UniProtKB/TrEMBL annotation:
Segments forming a coiled coil: none
Species for this entry: Mesorhizobium tamadayense
Signal peptide region: none
Name of the protein in its database record: 4Fe-4S dicluster domain-containing protein
Domain 4Fe-4S ferredoxin-type: 1-30
Molecular-function GO terms, alphabetical: 4 iron, 4 sulfur cluster binding; metal ion binding
InterPro entries in alphabetical order: 4Fe4S_Fe-S-bd (IPR017896), 4Fe4S_Fe_S_CS (IPR017900)
Record keywords: 4Fe-4S, Electron transport, Iron, Iron-sulfur, Metal-binding, Transport
Length: 64
């Protein structure tokens, strides 16, 4: 299951964009979004989802 960003909670800090090993996160319109076709859940790259790890706002990067 790919991850998604809860737009209403995202502060647009941009931290997640550079940590994603799949380059699945980009700024689109007015917020950051995760491309579900690119998100690999960080499998094989990391033990934990990097977007979840770096996001300063709890429960903003969540399973879609
Ligand atoms: S779970 Fe991993 S691959 Fe998916 S968007 Fe977050 S950092 Fe990128
Ligand atoms: S790290 Fe969290 S708050 Fe920052 S841009 Fe990504 S989803 Fe938004």
């Amino acid at each position: 299951m790919p991850f998604k960003i809860i737009a209403s909670q995202c502060t647009q800090c941009g931290a997640c964009e550079f940590e994603c090993p799949s380059v699945a996160i980009e700024f689109k319109g007015e917020t950051y979004v995760i491309d579900p076709d690119k998100c690999t859940e960080c499998k094989e790259a990391f033990d934990t989802q990097q977007c979840v790890s770096v996001c300063p706002v709890p429960k903003t990067c969540v399973p879609a």
